Amino acid sequence: MTAGKDEPVFSNVLIALKEDLDREPLIELAKRAAAPDARLHLLTLIKVAANEDGVRRLKSAEQALEGRADTLRAEGYDASFEVGIVVVAAAMDIARIAEERGVDLMVIGLAKRSRVGKALVGSDAQRVLLGATCPVLVTHLYER
Hints:
The chain is an alpha/beta fold.
């Protein structure tokens, strides 16, 4: 697909959404980068503790993404959604899913953390950037 100077060029976009945070800023950013009839794939991966029943959280996330995908379809996008449990590590799973879906852009949000928090926990966003096989659009959105 070729585009003019200000026209979006991405036709297959994965939007990695955190389960419990506002999804709209990332979706709106992806829409600005995507072609009008692009495929937008909404993805939420949930970390479930060994002793936790994640079924309720999975169903809640699925309902939220299904409704948002329906709205995107009404706007003319080829929208799909996926909710899953983190298998290896969130960043590795996101990069793997993006590659499997053949996406040409990933959109992710950064969580603001202290330096100590970053050192102790690491950065999923950094790992996505390093593991991605396509461009990654990153924006600072969240406070932790």
